[in-house]
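batch job 7 of whatever, protein = Cytochrome c peroxidase
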Amino acid sequence: MRHKLHALSAVVLTSLVFGLAGCGNDAKPAASAAASAEQPASAVASAAAPAAPASQAAAVRNEMIKPIPVAEVKDPAMVELGKQLFFDPRLSRSGGMSCNSCHNLSMGGSDNLAASIGDRWQKGGINSPTVLNSSLNIAQFWDGRAKDLKEQAGGPIANPAEMAFTHDLAVAMLETIPGYKAEFSKVFKKDKIDIDQVTTALAAFEETLVTPNSRFDKWLLGEDAALTTDELKGYELFKSAGCVACHNGPNVGGASFQKMGVVEPYKTAHTAQGRMDVTKSDQDRFLFKVPTLRNVELTYPYFHDGAAMTLTDAVDTMGKLQLGRTFTPEENGQIVAFLKTLTGDQPKFELPQLPVSSDSTPRPDPFAK
């Protein structure tokens, strides 16, 4: 998840955010000083995409958006274990929720809800970001409180409003399942399972969830016929309006934190304050991680509060709030047409057969009070 560089000052330029659903290249957008200062080198490194082959790099058009590289699987056994954990609802208190519940890989890695449904039908605290291409982000969560996918993976399991388990209970449950015991031992060469192994495996699987070969990527690689005239006009408008200042790189976003509501305040009843919730610094109020625009047509509704139900609504709102610009219906339609070309190949794999519980595996009681 924008402006002609005319009436807005340089300060506005560095604050631009398109805010729909950011990884920078040679022309990197500026993040807030507070946000940048808190990001460890490992977080920035995790946002960098693997280098493209020399033959491909030479063919890429000179644009601020770069093609997504195909995922490189370094440890297939760990990825397979992570896939099992991603789909296993036994990691939740109720036995009915898995990572895939809120990051549905059949729905663009999101759940298409303004707020996810948590344990005991609790309303989630924020719009669930897509897990697709999340390894290309500078940090995880809207407020960037997790530096990488491994750190993020442990959060929902223990969040009482989400999967509502604890790390200790999750590990104890896995220890009672012979199939998991064997797989963890094979992958990590240890006798005991721990939460660090769980989050490492989950992150390894999530790192494979990239979506290359979008029509726009094909155009970037020299295939002129990949885009229509309207889609190209939309991209040119996306650039000239200033959207690309924040939405650039392989992930078309995810590389910085920017203010939601640059030209005029964003009005919402949602209580999230963005980076300020992490740094406790007032200067970070309403600074949110710039969302990826990859697969954005699949990941509605938009913004941290899920207030924009359609891409048309999102483009209209961002034009006014971030750029001080009202797009005509034709311009809006062209930008939306371009954004839809960012949908890439969705992850394809066999659903995992989960290891069978043993007699000692705790049976969940989803209706317990």
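notes: Strands lie at 257-259, 287-289.
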